[in-house]
Amino acid sequence: MDKRIESIQNPKVKEWKKLQTKKGRMQYRQFFIEGEHLIEEAIKHQSRVDVLLAVENTDVPVKWLEQITQMYWVTPVVMKYLSQIETSQGIAAICSMPVYDLELKNGCSYLLVDRVQDPGNFGTLIRTAEAIGVQAVLYTKGTVDVYNDKVVRATQGAIFHFPILEVDGLVCVHSCQEKGIPVYGSALQNAVHYQEVAPSNEFMLIVGNEGGGIDQHLLNQTTQNIYLPILGQSESLNVAVAAGILLYYLKSNKLKA
Amino acid sequence: MDKRIESIQNPKVKEWKKLQTKKGRMQYRQFFIEGEHLIEEAIKHQSRVDVLLAVENTDVPVKWLEQITQMYWVTPVVMKYLSQIETSQGIAAICSMPVYDLELKNGCSYLLVDRVQDPGNFGTLIRTAEAIGVQAVLYTKGTVDVYNDKVVRATQGAIFHFPILEVDGLVCVHSCQEKGIPVYGSALQNAVHYQEVAPSNEFMLIVGNEGGGIDQHLLNQTTQNIYLPILGQSESLNVAVAAGILLYYLKSNKLKA
Asked: Which of A208, B47, B63, B192 has the CB geometry, 3.0–4.6 Å to A213, for a possible disulfide?
């Protein structure tokens, strides 16, 4: 089962290297992850690891080997060539992208991310939404690629736990409204204090681009736009922090002490 | 008032280049900032800009020139040499570090950051704490340097709005307790649900290192340790997101809709 790769000229290495770009990831429908924690989460929650790579003499947990169908031992040079982090742990994996169907359901909560650009922000949004028990994260075209390595790292593995899908924002908002699911847009203007809306078991929260916020067409269609008061001199909060505060408030019915 | 610098061999350029390291920043008690938004905040709130640098033919707001004592026009090559961002806006400044005295006061709230490593996280913590009206951010030895360029950028200018000081954590906790200011540690274990403590006008919230949390010696001395419930499969929240949720909850008396 395990083989050895010594050269960066190896055709498989060339193929995996392509996963560093969105184009390559879309071509193979795969993405590259690094480090024990992320691989552990990938194996535990989805068994979506197609290939495991380890530098020779790296400790690989025995339980992983039982669940992995393909494994290669590689030289430090090959790992360094494929790695996108400064100090590689010597272990990496190629995962297949999942295919999710979206059916918005009553009694569920959703986060819709509109064109967020920063990979750390998008990954932290996914991590936060999963932690608070949101059913799915939806995102619009123009959002940074969800399988970008920095996004995946910032999710801390949450990317393997629940559906994350690109959607048409307006279609989603209308679909929620047909089902009576309230849609809240996080906005600085033409919005009410966030505590004016009631915590609930079902909602869709929308957060937007770091500089420009949510697209005006979407904002116009929400049930209500809400803002977080600022007591200091800052103009706004980081988008992932704002989403965390709003999600924990909206879900507070489920969080009773 | 304005002069021209064409070479990276210029002694001033060599001096400014040293501000990229903590050692250099401590030597000159200065730090380097880039981009119109940060410089605007520096001038507006503290007038701490010692030197303004702009690439020739860059638009410099006239009102800045009235408040700046030293300005240099530089070539694109010089700016690129000094810049730490991929696409420089062609404008930068050298700021002097402020000196703050710390006197913990009743009726005030504080955030104590214990050995947070990631510059983006520390900067976002500062931005969030300032936005919710905390009086000062305190941090322990082992925290990433507050004048690191990535920290400063992530604060979005909040670094210029209020005191940020390195402290001895235990001394701070004891000082709060002598004054009757409750101290809350954010922790996953041996902690109560965060909604079990009451929102208040005075408190010190402690958040800790991304991997290891708050130092055990500090945790042992708090008034109460508190946790944020996790409804999903994630193990924890990003430290800046967790701090945002806790600060907005603790300050909710001041946020009434």
From this structure: A208
